[in-house]
Write a structure and sequence with these properties.
single chain, about 150 residues, alpha+beta, Muramoyl-pentapeptide Carboxypeptidase, domain 2, 6-stranded mixed sheet, two-stranded antiparallel ribbon, 8 strands, binds zinc ion
Length: about 150
């Protein structure tokens, strides 16, 4: 196992069920490994914010082929190793996790409540955009209030 930070490994941030199922090579190039190291360091701050509870990453880096296979957007921060989809089951729902991150001092570019997971990206723009996936498709600004 190759460690990127105290609690996150390269394997965790590159594993993909879709890649495994479809036989897609999801090995990141060296520049992306460096980006993943930064992402892991930023995830450590998120982990601490969430009470040091386990963060379960479902998608981190995506190679161009994998990104196409999962229907990711063309400019997805996942392609650069700067985004993760995750849950923190010990903390609460994706909405609860999003609320905690949105009201923290943690710098991020996009935070999206996707329904059953949280998308968090650390693109250098660090715009602190907060979005909610809408039931009919697309995204709305902000988080649900209920
Ligand atoms: Zn995502």
């Amino acid at each position: 196992m190759s460690r990127l930070s105290p609690h996150f490994s390269l394997e965790e941030l590159t594993a993909s069920q879709t890649a495994a199922r479809k036989g897609i090579d999801n090995t990141p190039p060296p520049a992306v490994i460096e980006a993943l190291r930064k992402t892991a360091a930023q995830l450590e701050a998120v982990r601490e914010l969430l009470g040091g509870r386990v963060i379960t990453v479902s998608s981190g880096y995506r190679s161009p082929r994998l990104n196409r296979a999962v229907g990711g957007t063309r400019a997805s921060a996942h392609l650069k190793g700067r985004a993760v989809d995750f849950n923190c089951y010990g903390f609460g729902s994706p909405l609860a996790v999003c609320r905690a991150i949105a009201s923290s001092e943690i710098p991020f570019d996009q935070l999206i409540e996707e329904g059953t997971w949280v998308h968090l990206s650390f693109d250098e723009r660090l715009r602190r955009q907060v979005r909610t996936k809408a039931p009919g498709g697309g995204y709305r600004p902000g988080l649900r209030s209920d």
